[in-house]
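Our preliminary data section would be incomplete without showing what the modeling component actually yields. Below, a chain of 380 amino acids is followed by its predicted structure, encoded as tokens that our downstream tools consume directly.
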Amino acid sequence: MHVWASIAVFALIFLILLDAFETIVLPRRILRDFRITALFYKATWFRWNRIARLIKSGPRREGFLAYYGPLSLILLLGFWAAGLIFGFACVQYGLGEHLTLGSSERITFGKLIYHSGETFFTLGYGDIVPSNAAARALSVLEAGMGFGFLAVVIGYLPVIYSSFATREIEISLLDARAGSPPTATEFLSRLGCCPEQTVLDGIFRDWERWSADLLSSHISYPVLLFFRSQHSNQSWLSALTVMLDVTSLVMTGIDGIHPEQAKLTFAMARHAAVDLAQVIRSEYDPQAPERLTEEDFARLRQELARHGVTLYEGPDAADRLAELRRLYEPYVYSLTKRLGFALPSWIGERRKDNWQASPWDHAIQARSLEHPGHVVEEHF
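Predicted structure:
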């Protein structure tokens, strides 16, 4: 009976190792339905997001959600380690007797879990030792596996945070170019009348590469999808959506701007949106809420014209833009529902950018209101 139990637990150990290999080492999307990591994130994210919805303040809710990505990574690693320790303890229990050095205590299953834990983490106290060849070989195997597991984890965390930092650079640069939160209208308005084609193409080329890097890193390490940006009004999804909006407008037609590079950037960004939606199994939603009504489109056109940017005015302009929007909006909307992000609007409200705001600004403003006739001196 113990032998069959050991075989069953060996299958559990294999599944955990396979899952860890696919999550950490294998750089591609896994299509298999049953995966321990997928079940872990599905169960924990649903509850975490549900609690977050009870928080009324937007910044506080974002702050709470920001804990999930790093914390889930630590919990997943602990879950794998606990599963392997439990599995090896079960196999040791099925293989035979063990000895306790310097004591006549009876070996229980609880003590075997302790023995498995100290073996996995290579502590090697030697207070419990296996007494037959199979159990000794299993202890050596577990010690080697534990050492390898720790080595992979040590190498895994820096890669995760390196990819996160790389992702956030362009998002931070977007602050001064498209506002906080970013919008397509603000991006094009700040370019002004007749922008330099080479400058705009350079920006689009950077975002094409950013989208490719986003796709590559987030397929290899899906946990990055849950990592929030440093500011509550920024996110990788809003940045990706804004660039899809901007390139859609350029492809629809803007006087003086050639759309060749915009088409390449749009293709790469749309590729990223579709594939990342599949990674977390976000359902395609063709009934996504309307982001750009006819009235909003008219306002967008007027706002851009006020800054010297002239949209194509043909009778099919709205249809052209709607056709492009249908290629990506259902996917980014499904991602927002699954991840708890907010989709950016096409036309944003006038407010300070993140780089313009600071706690000292609020303090100075408060003191000015308290003492209207008093000039606040700033010392540097």
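The CA atoms of residues 82 and 117 lie 8 Å apart. The chain has 14 helices and two strands. Preliminary results of this kind motivate Aim 1 of the renewal.
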